[in-house]
Design a protein that fits this description.
It comes from Aedes albopictus. The chain has helices at residues 2-37, 47-52, 54-57, 63-72, 84-94, 127-138, 156-160, 173-186, 213-216, 229-232, 236-255, 302-306, 328-336, 349-354, 365-369, 374-383, 399-413, 425-432; strands at 74-78, 98-102, 143-147, 165-168, 190-196, 199-205, 264-269, 274-279, 325-326, 342-345, 361-362, 390-393, 420-422. By secondary structure, the chain is an alpha/beta fold. The structure holds adenosine-5'-triphosphate and zinc ion.
Length: 440
């Protein structure tokens, strides 16, 4: 019975894959035909457009002339994730004539709770392809261009050049500086958003005499102070709010309306349901990139400048010497041989509840770095039979290094062997030791 069921499921899945392929080919055919036969005039709205956009055309802030401005505009959305999905969706709905979607990544199951243009059937496809097919279904009157690549110093200027406005919907500091500098050099407004946990932020850089990102943050933050969604978590409704607001600011810029969020920062606290509007420092007279005498006149190596990767996929810190570390295979061998040891898992309690290695003890990284439970850890180590080895594990092997670095001195003071971190954390455990161990 069960085997039969599995066969039926995989047969149906196969059929659906084939049908999807056929559908895709037909949609492409239709697109080509429409392009050829339907002349779309940029100085006039066709009947379809008049009906489709009527509810916004009747707004005094938009009107026919405003709608034509939107039709003639082009916007590049960099990042097709939590922020990029809602902003691209509202830009497409509003009728932005040309929308570029840029992302190097593929859709994963962990994206679907918040990156709502991707569906279960797009897992494994490129994010840009997934967004493109959704937007084209929604609005065949607009053009959606895809850029399936990583934005770097080598390609940024060329890619951004043809667009009027850039939306920063990425998730890492190196790309933020890259986009800022490229937008300053190309004189384009940058609509910047970020969201983490239950909070979000929004501002527009390099617009109407307002500051750029570098004016406010001349130097990047230390890598260990940066948290991403994978480590800190985020709720989909929060990225939805900020992404939709990014689309709104973009539309206001295109329309030439007042009230654009330049020189101001909008802070959204989803827990308290509050919005705060902070006035930002004005443009910095000696800003390295946007001042009258800039010291930076071309793009630089942003990964080096920030000491951080421009992708969050393999942003592994490398803080420790080889003798302070152990691989997952070495740990597995040692655990299987019942070598007495202590394993500290430094993830937050919520994550520890999802899955954990046998015998591990949960002491969250915050408690270690703020010395709330360091003595307790040293005591545990001492109690476990004197000088048993202590290992530290986390999700991807970054926090475990911070913990080891922080604990080493205390352990030495107490005459204990300093702890070692498990390289690559639980992700490496799933990859190299136990494929059944949950990954998140
Ligand atoms: N330099 C870059 N070039 C191209 N795409 C980028 C660059 N930097 C970031 N991105 C993309 O920006 C998006 C950011 O979205 P978000 O943080 O919601 O997604 P994610 O990385 O899939 O999430 P998670 O951190 O949960 O895995 C990602 O899809 C990422 O691939
Ligand atoms: Zn500046």
């Amino acid at each position: 019975m069960e085997v039969d069921g599995e066969a039926q499921i995989s047969e149906l899945e196969g059929d659906i894959r084939t049908l999807r392929k056929q559908l895709k080919a037909k949609v492409q055919q239709l697109k080509t035909l429409k392009k050829h036969f339907q002349k779309n005039c940029i100085n006039k709205l066709n009947n379809n457009e008049i009906a489709r956009y009527s509810r916004q055309i009747i707004l005094s802030e938009i009107g026919v002339q405003g709608q034509l401005k939107l039709k003639r505009a082009s916007v590049l959305v960099v990042g097709a994730g939590g922020l990029g999905c809602p902003s691209a969706l509202y830009l497409a709905g509003a009728g932005i004539g040309r929308i570029g979607i840029l992302d190097y990544d593929e859709v994963e199951l962990t994206n679907l709770h918040r990156q709502l243009l991707h569906t279960e059937s797009s897992v494994g496809l490129t994010k840009v392809e997934s967004v493109q097919s959704y937007l084209e279904e929604l609005n065949s009157q607009i053009e959606v261009v895809t850029h399936h690549l990583q934005l770097t110093s080598d390609n940024a200027l060329q890619i951004l050049q043809p667009y009027d406005i850039v939306v920063d919907a990425t998730d890492n500091v190196a790309t933020r500086y890259l986009l800022n500098d490229a937008c300053v050099l190309l004189k384009k407004p940058l609509v910047s958003g970020s969201a983490l946990q239950l909070e979000g932020q929004l501002t527009v850089y390099n617009f109407n005499g307002g500051p750029c990102y570098r004016c406010l943050f001349p130097n990047p933050p230390p890598p260990e102070t940066v948290t991403n969604c994978g480590d800190g978590g985020v709720l989909g409704a929060i990225t939805g709010v900020i992404g939709a607001l990014q689309a709104l600011e973009t539309i206001k810029i295109i329309l030439g309306n007042t009230g654009v969020l330049s020189g101001r920062l909008l802070l959204f606290d989803g827990q308290q349901s509050t919005f705060r509007n902070l006035k930002l420092r004005p443009k910095k007279a000696d800003c390295a990139v946007c001042s009258d005498q800039p010291s930076l006149t071309k793009l630089i190596d942003y990964e080096q400048f920030c000491s951080m990767k421009a992708t969050d996929k393999d942003s592994h810190l490398n803080l420790l010497a080889p003798h302070e570390r152990i691989t997952v295979q070495e740990y597995r061998n040692l655990a299987e041989s019942n070598v007495p040891h202590l394993l500290i898992d430094v993830r937050g309690a919520n994550q520890f509840e999802i899955c954990q290695l046998p015998t591990s003890v949960n002491v969250p990284i915050d408690d270690i770095l703020k010395n709330r439970r360091t003595t307790e850890v040293a005591q545990l180590a001492a109690q476990s039979g004197g000088n048993v080895p202590v290992f530290v594990v986390c999700r991807r092997g970054n926090d475990s290094q911070l913990a080891v670095r922080h604990l080493a001195e205390l352990f030495r003071e107490k005459g204990l062997e300093p702890p070692r971190d498990i390289v690559g954390g639980l992700h490496a455990w799933t990859r190299n030791v136990d494929p059944e161990f949950p990954i998140y």
